[in-house]
Amino acid sequence: MTKQEQEQRKIDSELDKTKPSEITSKKSHGEILKEQICEAQEVYKKNPLSILSSSFTAGLEIGFTFLLLCCLFFFLEGKVAEDTIFKMLSVVYPVGFILVILGQSILFTEQTSLLTLPVLNRKQGIGQLLRLWGLVIAGNLLGGWAMAGILVWIGPKLNIFTLDVVGKIAEHVTDYSGEVIFVSAILAGWLMGLLSWVVTSSKETISRIFIIYMITAILAFAGLHHSIVGNVEVFAGLISGPEISWMDYLKFQSIALVGNALGGAVFVALLKYRAFVTNVTS
């Protein structure tokens, strides 16, 4: 048996010995890691059509965040300075995330670090990870496009927002250089990976709602770029007016997806996993 195999066996043995604490409600690092790996393994076992369906649902559901952003912007426009409105949007931004995460739909940024852990633990290969990421991204984007189309049509008819509002939100998301969007997306992916980790550490629904709300509100208030919410925002801008071009959309979407993936996989999955491994093998 090689040294690497011995180390892996030691890690697996330590994870197997990890049991929920009966003394305190606080979960240990090992408990959280074990739960995350087990949860990710269940996703890997799912039928590809089921994964695509669940991620498509997540893309639709995250659209309710965009609906509320547009409604609140339209309501406050002319009453409050525009830069203040964009900060106030963070109040409603978390709603779609709460619906998606507690509803157990598969959202790319929330699952990025989670799905990376079995690869780090040598239970899955990098090819399987990329295939799964591809399915989730495809479903999320398709759902987002469908929801963007519905909202762009229904919003003006219900008089809850105008296409001008849609364009302003889309421009606000894309009006940055590629480098800025990339680093911003890494930070957003990092926060979303932490969200997944901290939600797993909590045992109560109310606590989970608070965690989701707090982290995603921070993301919105700071103006960080989230590839799946941003997909709805920018695609809606693309189909509703001349402000956003296909080049704007493709530039944003490709950079944001890569940045989010790196943020979740490297700064959460890798660092959290290595922290556990170092403690076990040192």
Reading the helices and strands in chain order gives: HHHHHHHHHHHHH
CATH architecture: Up-down Bundle
CATH class: Mainly Alpha
Tally of DSSP β-strands:
0
Domains, number: 1
**Major sheet:** none
Structural class, by secondary structure, is mainly alpha
Q: What is the CATH topology descriptor?
A: Glycerol uptake facilitator protein
CATH superfamily: Glycerol uptake facilitator protein
Radius of gyration computed on alpha carbons: 20 Å
The number of helical segments is: 13
Low-pLDDT sequence parts: none
Give the N-to-C terminal Cα separation: 19 Å
- Summed over residues and divided by their number, the pLDDT gives a mean of 94
Helix content: over 70%
What does the overall shape look like? elongated
Concise synopsis of the structure shown:
The protein is mostly helical and about 280 residues long. The chain has a single domain (about 30-280), classed as Glycerol uptake facilitator protein (Up-down Bundle), CATH 1.20.1080.10.
